[in-house]
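Hi there,

I know you've been waiting on this one. I reran it after we fixed the sequence typo, so this is the corrected version. Both the input and the resulting structure follow.
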Amino acid sequence: MTRVLFLAHSFPRTADDPVGSFILRLAVALRDEGIEVHALAPAAPGVPAEDSFEGIPVRRFRYAPASRETLAYSGTMLSQARGSLAGAAVVTSLVTADAIAALREARRSGAQLIHAHWWFPAGLAGTIAGPLAGLPLVTTLHGSDVRAARSGKVATALFRRVLRRSARVTTVSHWLADEARALVPDVAPVVAPMPVAPTLFHPGGPRDRDRLLFIGKLNPQKGIEHLLRALAAMRAKPALDVVVGVGSDAGGVRALAASLGVDAQLRFHPLLTQAQLAELYRRCTALVAPFTEEGLGLVAIEAALCAQPVVAFASGGLLDIVVDGRTGLLTPAGDPGALAAALDRLLAMPDQGAALGEEGRRHALATFAPQAVARRYAALYREILAARPTG
């Protein structure tokens, strides 16, 4: 049995928590490949220091007084770090505590390899703990990594340090691999996406007509403003369900919707459990993903698994998921008019894109099934361990 320690600043806090759930799915799928995973994540209010999900043990480390432990799970880590000297100090404390806890947990669990999810803070902590424990490091980039690496000279230098000190770097999409190579040309990332949950996300029940779905943070990168402007420009007047991502304030979006005259078409939902999301996917007509520079776009995969078409911007990792005219529709990034036209086109189809959704499910199962993803990572781990000197 090969033992691997996962480091992640985002990991499920409860059994039905969607935050970081893809990392848990990978850990579970690896078990069938003879890989035993232990997970390490930051502390969070009301969350026990030790827990287990689907047989995967997770330990959570403290990194600051409880009132200051707000970096993880909120989606605001970078903004907090830039906001003040106090924020930067807590980030430094987070990385230091992560490295110390990783060293301790690696020794306690008998880990043979450390797998860091996101280069910051986990990858940075892994470059400290890995050498001290005598263990190789795998670093996976998920998407926000590149934006963080571009945020300043120090961030870029640290990004390069982590990638160059990793035995392997993986990315969840081809676009992200290209972006990483642009910053660190001497590193060759391996494209290896995260797994999805086909047993949870599957077709079933009737689809509502003229009902669109958006899931994500209400920020420029996720493109909610483009979607609202497209909604205002459409001939059709569909309903739009908006599932608000963690760390978002809906006030500005509500105001924009009112100014555009589309507020009556919107229904807002808080962050939902995975089971609740699956029901919403199954009910909608299509998922709209106007994201730019998205690392992969797991919500697009989950919608496809539910046999729903995806209308998206042709940007980032979405190009690995949406095949234009086959599994959904792609439009130029940042163009609300083109997005409106694509949505009108889909809603005017006799089946409102049902055939596209069925092909999308076939494509998603072939590309992102847990077994296929786990086999790839297990082979990568074994290749790294086999190359290490013995004796």
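Quick highlight: The CA atoms of residues 232 and 260 lie 6 Å apart.

Best,
R. S.
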